[in-house]
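Co-fold these.
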Amino acid sequence: MSGMRDLWQSSSVLLTVDLVILTLREDRLHVLLVERGHEPHQGAFSLPGGFLRDRSEDILAAAARELSEEAGLDAGTLHLEQLAVYGDPGRDPRGRVVSVAHLAIAPRLPEPVAGTDAADARWTPVDQVLDTSLPLAFDHLRIVIDGVERACAKLESTALATAFCGPTFTLSELQRVYEAVWDTRLDARNFYRKVQGVRGFVIPAGPTRKTEGGRPARLFRAGPTTVLYPPMVRPDRTERGEDQ
Amino acid sequence: MSGMRDLWQSSSVLLTVDLVILTLREDRLHVLLVERGHEPHQGAFSLPGGFLRDRSEDILAAAARELSEEAGLDAGTLHLEQLAVYGDPGRDPRGRVVSVAHLAIAPRLPEPVAGTDAADARWTPVDQVLDTSLPLAFDHLRIVIDGVERACAKLESTALATAFCGPTFTLSELQRVYEAVWDTRLDARNFYRKVQGVRGFVIPAGPTRKTEGGRPARLFRAGPTTVLYPPMVRPDRTERGEDQ
DNA sequence: GGCACTTCTTGTCGATCAGACAAGAAGGTA
DNA sequence: TACCTTCTTGTCTGATCGACAAGAAGTGCC
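Predicted complex below.
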């Protein structure tokens, strides 16, 4: 067995963090993309992210830092979790670069992008990414696919949907989150009762108003529960079509 | 912005793969552990795993290689998936070592451990690990916790349970998988109908026999479905206990 | 104010599903 | 054959889900 020095020589890798930052804009799911300013893939769009600053930086901390630097968002206020690792040997022409992708959820309508370092960041409808009408650098398409799928899944079993909303929200706002992420339509009346039937999902926050045009809605905040019981099941998509 | 050379100097890391290999032995969930032969944590138990062999090795391939080298199991025959990344800066005294943990599921009763390189590997009941009566090296306790939780969750929504069984199995064998992983009891009669109600979960494999002592059971093989619809929901654990 | 309009909230109803349990089927063994 | 074990099929009851009606509570317009 060779020593540690040989190990470093032969098999150390560079670590990056990449961010799939999702939010809702005009009731559609958007992801934050940046235009790359230099090679490789200069001019193409990619997920925000970057290299570990130094060997002592924690990975999640690096993700939070990139969230701030490249997106102008404060990690303390939004949901941030590890998504997966992408380490295919050929994914980056600069050498062996392994990326730890993260999923972040931003509350609705953060300004199009703060006037920060990364003014070239823009919210893009995920549809445009998923149908490949807007190609991404590296393997970032796959990362977005996985991130959106993770979000879809966690909407069912966890309180992640509240992360798309502000500190208080109405139930129809919450419903629009589900509809946008799942790309489906839900019955407002059943949704209303279902959400309130989940223990600790949402708790009333004053009998206040907020909507416009119709009857004012009650406000809620996120409850203490992180895993939903019973879960919010998304409607069957296969629709009796002889599976396969 | 500094060049690539500085980046490598300052922030490259060593990558390892670690394996949470689960199986069923005597109807209890077990995880494969190895006794460490050298520092750090010499003599302690840890998950099987090791460093990336070289810079060109794919991560999943490295996991498959360790599966073979350290556990004597063939990655082609069993379920193997990425679990998560553990990269806390202080987790390994040898320097910045980032581990990509994987979850593997072995069919029931692979021999206690083949007479391979790692003869010091042994199947250990996960209870003993989770209640910390058997301490693990590094942050491997956390990795085991996350791996078991992942297995529990995927039993609900995917056909992962069949990976615990051989190529053919009876429904009561499958039931014992659920009972062991979830640590719960299920009604055999309802389970029987429920499993068969899930489209493409299991398909009959000859009206053969297999069990002993009672009426022979029908044999099944895993079906084409990977995501279960409707899902197998695990019984509510909170049991009307004023949530908290 | 009265009226139309919007959206929120509560009710109801039938189909479907989950969990409890009875009973029959199909082998082994004394 | 009598019994034991385990598998498989039925049935029943209460809970849940999705469709939809109807009432509640605001805004804006005449």
